[in-house]
Amino acid sequence: GFDTHQTTVEANLTNYHKNSEMMAKGGFLGFLMCLLAVSSYAFAVKPQPHATFSARDSALRMSGGAVPSVTVKAPPALYEGAVAAGAAKAAATFSKIFTLGIVSGAHIGFGAYLAITVGGACSGIAQSNPGLQKMIFGAFGLPFGLIMTLISGGELFTGNTALVTAAVAEKKATTKDLIKNWIASYSGNFVGSLILAYLAYKSGTLGSAPAAAAIATAKCSLPFEVAFVRGILCNWLVCMAVYMASGCSTMIGKMTAVWFPISAFVALGLDHSIANMFIIPLGMLRGAEVTISQMFAKNLIPVTLGNIVGGALCVMAPFGITMGGWLKKKEE
Asked: Model-level pTM?
C-alpha cells in the first residue's frame, strides 16, 4: 500500500510540474498575444481627415483647440524629426547632458536588473526550452528601461550615436557638439549604471542566483571581433527602436516601437555598452572573476565601437542618403 501511495504522489508531482510549466508558457504566450493586439492598434493606418473637416480644423486652431494629429509620422517627417532631436541634444550643455545621462544609465540598469531577476532565474526553462528562456529574458527588462529614457527625455549614448550624427551630417550641429554630447552622455550613463549596480547588489534581491556573475564572465570572455560585431547588431536594433518611437505620438505607439527591437536584441544575445556598464560591475560585485581592465578591453571598448557603427552607419546613413542631404551635400 505504501509503494502504491508513493507512486501516486510522484505521479501527481510530475503532473504538477508539467502543468506549472505549461501555465508559465501559456501566460507568456498570452502576454505576447495581448502585445500584438495592442501593436496592431498602435500602428494602424488612420484615415486622413476628409476635406470637409478643414473648416472645423481651422476653427479649432483659432479657438486654441487641438487638431487631431497623425499617430505615426511618414518616413520623411520621421527623418526630419530625428535630425531636429539630434540638433537639440547637440546644443545642450555638457552638464545637462551628463546629468540626464546619469538618469538614463540608471534607467537602462533597471531594465537589465529586471532581466537578470526574471529571465536569469529560469534555469529549469533554460534547460528544457532555451528558446523560451531567451524570449523571457528579452521581454522583461531592457524594453521598459529604454521606454523610461525616451519618455522622460534622457540622454542615452547609444541612441545619440544615430540622432546627433544625423544632425551633424545635415549641418544642424558641429563635430565639436557631437564629441561633447557623446562624451557627456557616455560618462553620465557610466556613472548612473555604477550607482544602480551597487544599489542592486546591496538590496539583496538577487539572493544566491549565479546569473549576474555568469553573464559578466561570459561577456568578458569574447574575442574583440565578436564583441565588436555584437555591438553593431545590438545598436542597429536599439537605434531603430529610438528612431521609430520618435515618430509615434501616443504612449502605446512608443512602447510598441521599443518593445520588439529591444526584446529581440536581448534574446539574440547581442551587446549594449550601457547595459553592460551595469551588468558587468554587478557581476563583479557578486563574485565574477573579472578585472576592471578586462571589463574595458574585452567588452566595453569593442562593444562601444560597434554601437557607434550600428547607430551612425547601419541606421542613420541609409535614411540620410535617401531622405536627407548626406550625399547631395558631398556632391555639391
From this structure: 0.79
Taking the C-alpha atoms of residue 185 and residue 188, their distance in angstroms, rounded to an integer, is 5
Cell of 198: 551597487
CA pair distance 134, 122, nearest whole angstrom:
10
Burial 150-170 (b: 16+ CB within 10 A, else e): beeebbbbbbbbbbbbbbbbb
Ranges in the chain, pLDDT < 70? 1-70, 329-332
Rounded alpha-carbon distances, angstroms, from residue 288 to 79, 91, 214, 219, 291: 43, 40, 7, 11, 9
Write down how long the chain is. 332
pLDDT in tens, 233-290: 999 999 999 999 999 999 999 999 999 999 999 999 999 999 999 999 999 999 999 9
What's the start-to-end Cα distance of the chain, in Å?
A: 93
Here the cell at position 138 is: 528579452
Measure the CA angle with vertex 191, ends 188 and 196; round to 5°: 125
What pLDDT sits at residue 69? 57
pLDDT of res. 120 = 83
Between the alpha carbon of residue 221 and those of residues 74, 227, 306, the distances in Å are 43, 9, 17
3-state helix, strand, coil in the chain (%, to 5): 80, 0, 20
**pLDDT of amino acid 32:** 53
Cα(176)–Cα(305) distance, integer angstroms: 19
Q: Radius of gyration (Cα) for the chain, nearest Å? A: 23
Q: Which helix (H) or strand (E) holds 221?
A: none
Show the cell assigned to 79: 527623418
What's the pLDDT at 43? 45
